[in-house]
Amino acid sequence: QVQLDESEGGLVQAGGSLRLSCAASGRTFSSYTMGWFRQAPGKEREFVAAITWSGGSTYYADSVKGRFTISRDKAKNTGYLQMNNLKPEDTAVYYCNSDLRWNGRTWLDFGSWGQGTQVTVSS
Questions:
Q1: DSSP code string of 41-101
Q2: If 82 and its partner were Cys, which of 47, 57, 69, 98 is the partner (CB 3.0–4.6 Å)?
């Protein structure tokens, strides 16, 4: 079983940037697809971004395309989410997951979750 350790989020003004990291231990991300979801108060958890560990193909929710970039460092077994031009509506708890799968309509989570990290964007 893989354990995921997320970096701290933070408070940032609208238009600012933050980078989250998700480090895996116990098992590598290997051939899986890892990624990020987020959950805002009173809302369901939603998909943000994913990356295939082997080939590096990336996928994004429409709401973050052009602003967020997901990447990975195989040597460090760590995934990253670079968030630029942040908006107040990006405020949420962000969670990484070690095994995401696309079922043709939506991303499903099959792996371990990180502990979650709060990102707050002030207007």
A1: TTS--EEEEEEETTT--EEE-TTTTTTEEEEEETTTTEEEEEE-S--GGG-EEEEEES-EE
A2: 69
Q: What is the token pair recorded at 16? A: 């600012």
Per-residue model confidence (pLDDT) at position 31: 83
Residue 101 · residue 108 · CB < 8 Å: yes
Task: Taking residues 9-17, report their average pLDDT.
Answer: 98
Place of tokens 């895996």: 24
3-state secondary structure of 15: coil
Q: What is the 3-state secondary structure (H, E, C) of 91-120?
A: CEEEEEECCEEECCCCEEECCCECCCEEEE
